[in-house]
Amino acid sequence: MELSPDYLMKIKMRSNASFIHNKEPIKLFNLNQAQTTSQDLKLGKLSNNTSDCIGLKQSTKLDLIALTATQEIPQFIMNAFSILTLRTPQEGLFRMSPSDELQKPLQKTLETNGNLEMQNLEVDQICSLIKYFYRKLNNPLISEKMSILFRKSAEEDVKTMQIMTDPYRTNLIYLLKQLNNFSQNLLYKMDAKNFGVVFAPNLFELYNLGDEKILKRLIENANSFE
Amino acid sequence: MKQKQIKITFVGDNNIQRSGFLRQFLKQNNDCFIPVVEEYIEGECTINNQLVSYRLQDTPCNEDYDRIRHLYYLGTDIFVVCYQVVDLTNAGIKQSFNNVRAKWIPEIRQHSNAPIIILGTEAELLHTPALQIQDEEITQLVRDVGAQMHIISSSKHKYNIQLVIHQALHIILKQKEKETRNYK
């Protein structure tokens, strides 16, 4: 297993920069000290606090394969999007973030049960929960290998989409189609580019700057995938 | 003698005209509604007969970017933390104001010891019946956080836009003067 050179560069940059710019070193892992194998890095073993890593992989209970045992798309996602389409359009869908105090108990129940009652929640809260769900998945929707393929060529998106394995492929296409629908409605003031910016760090396993442009492309062409 | 570029980083909640402030500084159209990934403005000005080059760095402040945002903090000389001067919900939540204490300052202090300016945005809303944030709360916040300065600005009416940048540069230049004096 090999890490992408961009990711290694980022880790090196951070570990060096912490010595230059800060009097107290940042609590990040240091490549030279730890002498790690690439597998350890991938599993997130080095850092006690997984949120420090740029990679999304982490040990949470939200497992897409288990959640999609009986149906193609998790019940939570289906419910959330059906509620969102029924509500009156607001400016900045998926962009505004609600206060943390309100969200934390909801996030906990979502993580343990995999589903949640949402009829009484505000639009912002539901949007934030959807993003949280994708962020906390055991395996993110777009894995490192797939993201490399997407970065390579803009024209072969349909082909690369066919390589993806199944619960992830169907879920990604479902999400892209939903976002495409929302981007057609001008009342939301969110086009494909804006959705790309907001969703990119939630979907890519290893996020690099510029990935939001890939997502923008995918959302615009959502209807060409099957 | 050419000086090192001074980096001023802007943080703060979403939808409080933080990027609007920077676009107004460039005298651009402020009507666009685009979430920021990475935007920066570079420029030069003279302060005390000294040529100073600066870089105004805007950061992605969505919750989605929580894991990545600290990359933008590297090398920052001074932070500008923004909040909205009124509570538009009128429910007493004061989300953007409370987040300065609860979210932004701890996050900055984890990565850097640079000085901080607190900036109230959208001052034009002070004349509306929306719930205002009391002066005592603000002074308390400035004292607790150890901020260098508190300024109110309005990007719609072009009020105090240049002042914020100039004050930030002044603070950095004074700090550097002190350091060199102590060194001698």
From TrEMBL, chain A:
Q: Where is the Rho-GAP domain?
A: 60-226
Gene3D superfamilies attached here?
Answer: Rho GTPase activation protein
Tell me where on the tree of life, at the top rank, the source sits: Eukaryota
Known InterPro entries for this protein?
ARHGAP11A/B (IPR042869), Rho_GTPase_activation_prot (IPR008936), RhoGAP_dom (IPR000198)
Name listed for the protein in its UniProt record:
RhoGAP_domain-containing protein
Q: Taxonomic lineage per UniProt?
A: Eukaryota, Metamonada, Diplomonadida, Hexamitidae, Hexamitinae
UniProtKB/TrEMBL annotation, chain B:
The GO biological-process annotations, alphabetized, read as: small GTPase-mediated signal transduction
The molecule here is called Rac/Rho-like protein
Instruction: Print the organism lineage.
Output: Eukaryota, Metamonada, Diplomonadida, Hexamitidae, Hexamitinae
Coiled-coil spans in chain: none
Q: Which PROSITE patterns match?
A: RAB, RHO
Q: Which GO terms describe its molecular function?
A: GTP binding; GTPase activity
The record's keywords, sorted A to Z, are: GTP-binding, Nucleotide-binding
| Highest taxon, organism lineage | Eukaryota
